[in-house]
Amino acid sequence: MCPPEHFTVEYAINPWMDITVPVDAALAVKQWDLLRNTLVDLGHTVHVLEPVAGLPDMVYAANGAFSVDGTVYGARFRYPQRADEAGAHRAFYTRSAWTYKTPEHVNEGEGDFTYLPGAHGGVILAGYGFRTEPAAHAEAQEMLGRPVVSLRLVDPAYYHLDTALAALDDHNVTYYPDAFSPASQRVLAQLFPDAVLADRVDAEAFGLNLVSDGRHVILNTEATAMGAKVRAAGYHPVHVELTELKRGGGSVKCAVAELRR
Predict the structure, then answer these.
(1) Burial category of 81 from C-beta neighbours within 10 Å (exposed 0-12, middle 13-18, buried 19 and up)
(2) Catalytic site residue 2?
(3) C-alpha–C-alpha distance, residues 10 and 3, integer Å
(4) What's the 3-state SS for 125-168?
(5) Domain for residue 185, yes or no?
(6) pTM exceeds 0.90
(7) Looking at residue 209, which CATH number applies to its domain?
(8) Which domain holds residue 227?
(9) SUPFAM superfamilies, per this entry (predicted)?
(10) Phi and psi for 178 in degrees, rounded to 5?
(11) What pLDDT sits at residue 21?
């Protein structure tokens, strides 16, 4: 995770960003601290990436890379405003003795990739349509040695995979069908017949932008209906207020890069 010490909305690169509404910087830090403490209280180790002045979106740490079994597929950002974030993430992983793979193609890390080690022998789900290039899916497959299933995103409000789909455990997912093309919806239905299906209300509340450890599902306080859905599916929802981070187009998952050794 990366603290939002420099977080602001000074440019608009997704439909949620409004440069006319000021960010409450102190509240953003307070909410981020609450998320970090919630994860620690649930028994997880949180590593902190140092924020860099001039990179206000570094708080969305999930976008900086994607790791599987100790190998890291680095990010290459679509927009120049975020390009320098990739170097900060690369430094963190190389310093920590991960195997780091530098990408040739545009991809935004866990924003558009997720991994389910227990599903279909271990499968990567990958989004495209707005940020990550389809060619990055093949590149990730070669670098990580896991099969990649490409899913086309069609609604600009859900510009990253992690705004429209999340892994609930090693085997199953939750997703908002209308964020995907009809063909991608058919693929998801075939791969995950027991998925928890979300609706537009859930998606607009960033209820899919969650983190799950297989038992606890951490999601923002606005996603009450989504919380009820995951509870009905046998998980324990844990709500955290992240209203300020939503101003930049992210929530719980955007703020957390999962480290898969």
Answers:
(1) middle
(2) no
(3) 17
(4) EEEECCCCCHHHHHHHHHHHCCCEEEEEECCHHHCCHHHCEEEC
(5) yes
(6) yes
(7) 3.75.10.10
(8) 25-254
(9) Pentein
(10) -70, -10
(11) 92
Helix residue ranges per DSSP H, the chain: 25-41, 85-95, 134-144, 182-191, 200-204, 224-232, 243-246
From the list 2, 89, 137, 254, the catalytic residue is 254
Q: Two tokens at 104?
A: 């040739």
Q: Residue 97 to residues 73, 90, 92, 100, 225: CA-CA distances in angstroms?
A: 14, 11, 9, 9, 41
Q: Is 160 a catalytic residue?
A: yes
Mean pLDDT of 233-261: 97
**Which one from 137, 160, 171, 239 is the annotated catalytic residue?**
160
pLDDT, position 246 = 94
CA of residue 163 relative to chain centroid, distance: 7
Assigned domain for 171 exists: yes
Instruction: Tell me the β-bridge partners of 76.
Output: 107
Our count of domains for the chain comes to 1
Tell me which amino acid residue 113 is: F
Residue 6 lies in a domain: no
d(CA 136, CA 107) in angstroms, rounded, equals: 6
Is 189:172 a contact under the CB 8 Å cutoff? Answer: no
Q: Tokens at residue 87, please?
A: 């170097």
Neighbours of 51 (CB within 10 A): 18
In one letter, which amino acid is 221?
T
Mean pLDDT of all residues in 75-98: 97
Among 241, 260, 261, which Cα is nearest to 62's? 260
Residue at 80 is within a domain: yes
